[in-house]
Design goal:
- The complex is a heterodimer of chains A (about 350) and B (about 300).
- Chain A is α/β, with parallel strands linked by helices and about 350 residues long.
- In chain A, about 40% of the residues lie in helices and about 20% in strands.
- The longest helix of chain A has about 30 residues.
- Chain A is globular, with a radius of gyration of 25 Å.
- Chain B has about 300 residues and is mostly helical.
- In chain B, α1 crosses α11, α6 packs across α8 and α7 packs antiparallel against α8.
- The radius of gyration of chain B is 23 Å and the shape is globular.
- Classes of the chains: A alpha/beta (about 350), B mainly alpha (about 300).
- At the A-B interface, α3, β7 and α9 of A face β1, α5, α9 and α10 of B.
Chain lengths: ~350, ~300
């Protein structure tokens, strides 16, 4: 009994010692980091997250006095959080609506950073040639009006391919996403029926098909379901070696999605770019432009209340649309064309802090 | 002595605070959910429960397909997991030789430690192809006259969701039932054997009869997990808000729609609708738990005096 008490006492002493050591370590460490870098918080879109995280790492090499913390919680969350002013910047793949902009406590700016393409991907066993899709065909497949692979409308665009007499299994995203926004934006643009029956948005009421969660869910279902078709971000299709089709653009050419053809889509809007950059890139005029593409934006207030943060944010935005653009292509995002960069820079200069 | 009393008092206060915290958190949760779902409730009223259209763009919301999907997928899970877990546990506690008991029950419990996203990926890459290529054609061929087994073979759908859930709740049901069966006094079994009962009769009379309540409790816990499971189901159920009697067709659960759409919901009404549908899941869980509790009470009431029968 006595022994046990002694042992217990010994243990409490040890715990006390440990506690002191830990506390002093903690105090010491806070002292050491008295000059911590300024933390800037952002939240929003998942679509550009790989690029943004690359940027934030690279940018610390340019300016080590600032640290970015970005949470990829989805565009909807990004819009909500910047409107509630709980973050210093938001990020979104679908532009904010006029109503949302009115509700925001201050004037919000959309700063386009890069553009992304959405690829139409499919699983056709034994067919290794890239398929061609015209806009009507894509719309009819996702409306459930074309149900067989050997439908004559598909055959018309792919005369050399022996398409099977199999039912098409349509796969779409089940979670709300910028990818879905761009894809449904495109379908609304090219199909009157889609526009009136379904519409464009981050989640829509799909007429047909299976829903997969996330790019990985859609890619997984497609790769495991013969005769299926769906859409994923270009980067996802390329990295997972999924086959993806060429899509006929407004000029009538079948275009394969890649950063160059997506940048061409931005470039074709250069004369019609609205002042606030809230523009859809789908179905553009350019003859080399891939038609299923969209901007992704950072959302910042025109008047940033915190002077120190405002200065750093503006400096970062300028870097992102200039030096930052060179990281885009490796990650399969489309960099902004030079003349658009000029316009965006002008907009960034209007930010006050 | 005095010091001991103080410690007792401190102990009493701390434990009371902890217990009350749980109650307060639940009350706050309910209050918050009700408050946040009021805009949706005012707009749609009780029709929300019976409408079947879910169109976020047109702001038309009906929860019935999700309620249906949640309940049916959980029922499929119970239908498969209950006999499976009870059979496995009876084997382990009554029949299996010593050396096999530990490794097998360890493996069953290991199932509980697998993250649900892993189940989901396994579902997509392994379960769905098996279902599409073998199980669904088989069911359609031999049981195709039943309305449950009609339609295209997608692989993913209600059946896949139910099967994934059943695998996930097996460890819950079996580990609790195992403890229940082990708590049956050895004398019960010996008594049954002494009056000439066979192995099966012993299990039926002495073990199963004695442990009804406990096993029901285990099933309730399993059901609770099935109702609320999100990630794995979302990945395999097909996520279509449609009600169809065929288990081959895609479906949707409440937990899945919240996980899928909450991040991108921007309008206040949309968020309110998602909170309301969460509240409905909460209510379904409470109703099912109350029913099960009543069942347990009625069973355990009858049990008195029957034990030594």
């Amino acid at each position: 009994m006595y022994n046990k008490i002694v042992q217990l006492k010994g243990e409490t002493n040890m715990i006390k010692k440990l506690f002191t050591i830990i506390t002093s370590l903690f105090l010491l460490s806070t002292n050491n980091f008295a000059e911590r870098p300024l933390l800037i918080n952002g939240a929003g879109a998942t679509f550009p997250y790989p690029l943004y995280s690359k940027w934030f790492v690279e940018y610390t090499k340019v300016d080590s006095s600032v640290n970015f913390n970005y949470q990829s919680i989805g565009s909807g969350g990004g819009i909500r959080q910047i409107m509630a002013e709980t973050v210093d910047f938001g990020a979104t793949d679908g532009p904010m609506t006029d109503e949302q902009l009115k509700q925001a406590p201050g004037e919000l700016l959309h700063i386009p950073t890069v553009a992304g393409a959405v690829a139409v991907t499919y699983n056709l066993p034994d067919i290794n040639i890239r398929l061609n899709f015209s806009p009507e065909v894509i719309a009819d497949i996702f409306l459930g009006k074309i149900t067989k692979w050997n439908n004559e409308k598909i055959l018309k665009d792919n005369p050399d391919i022996n398409l099977p007499d199999k039912n098409i299994v349509v796969v779409h995203r089940s979670d709300g996403s910028g990818t879905t926004y761009i894809f449904t934006d495109y379908l609304s643009e090219v199909s009157v029926e889609w526009k009136s029956r379904v519409g464009k948005g981050t989640s829509v009421n799909w007429p047909v098909g299976l829903g997969g969660k996330g790019n990985e869910g859609v890619a997984g279902l497609i790769s495991k379901t013969p005769y299926s078709i769906g859409y994923v971000e270009l980067a996802y299709a390329v990295h997972n070696k999924l086959p993806y089709g060429a899509v006929k653009n407004k000029a009538g050419n079948f275009i394969v999605p890649n950063p160059t053809s997506t940048t061409a889509a931005i470039a074709s809007k250069r004369f019609t770019m609205p002042e606030d950059f809230r523009v859809s890139l789908v179905n553009p005029e350019g003859k080399d432009a891939y038609p299923i593409a969209g901007f992704t934006w950072l959302l910042v207030y025109k008047n940033i209340k915190d002077k120190a943060k405002g200065e750093k944010i503006v400096k970062f935005l300028k870097w992102a649309v200039n030096d930052g653009q060179k990281y885009a292509e490796d990650l399969l995002y489309a960099p902004l064309p030079m003349d658009i960069v000029k316009l965006v820079e002008q907009k960034i200069r209007t930010i006050k802090y | 002595m005095k010091k001991g009393k103080i410690i007792d008092l401190i102990f009493k206060i701390t434990t009371t605070v902890f217990a009350l915290t749980v109650v307060v958190i639940v009350i706050l949760m309910i209050y918050n959910m009700i408050k946040q779902s009021m805009p949706a409730f005012n707009k749609f009223g009780l029709k929300f429960l019976t409408d079947t259209i879910w169109d976020p763009l047109a702001e038309k919301f009906g929860a019935l397909p999700f309620i249906y999907g949640t309940i049916v997928s959980s029922m499929i899970a119970l239908f498969i997991a209950v006999p499976f877990s009870l059979g496995a546990v009876l084997f382990l506690s009554e029949i299996a030789p010593e050396w096999i008991k530990e490794p097998v029950s360890f493996l069953i419990e290991l199932l509980a430690a697998i993250p649900s996203i892993i189940y989901g990926l396994w579902g997509i890459f392994v379960l769905i192809p098996i279902l599409r290529n073998y199980v669904e054609p088989f069911l359609a061929k031999y049981f195709g006259y039943l309305p449950f087994f009609k339609g295209e073979f997608y692989g993913c759908g209600m059946l896949a969701g139910g099967i994934i859930l059943s695998i996930m709740i097996v460890p819950t049901i079996s580990s609790i039932s195992k403890d229940v069966f082990n708590s049956v006094p050895q004398t019960q079994r010996e008594a049954a054997l002494a009056i000439g009962a066979t192995k099966w009769e012993t299990i039926k009379l002495a073990v199963l009869n004695y442990s009804k309540t406990g096993v029901l409790g285990a099933i309730i816990l399993g059901l609770g997990r099935a109702l609320g499971e999100t990630m794995a189901v979302t990945m395999v159920i097909g996520n279509c808000p449609k009600i169809s009697i065929s288990l081959f067709e895609p479906s949707y659960t409440i937990a899945s729609v919240i996980a899928n759409e909450f991040t991108e919901a921007t309008s206040d009404l949309y968020i309110s609708v998602l909170v309301e549908i969460g509240l409905i899941l909460f209510i379904i869980t409470i109703i099912l738990n109350v029913c099960a509790r009543l069942l347990v009470w009625s069973v355990s009431g009858k049990l008195k005096g029957k034990v030594i029968e």
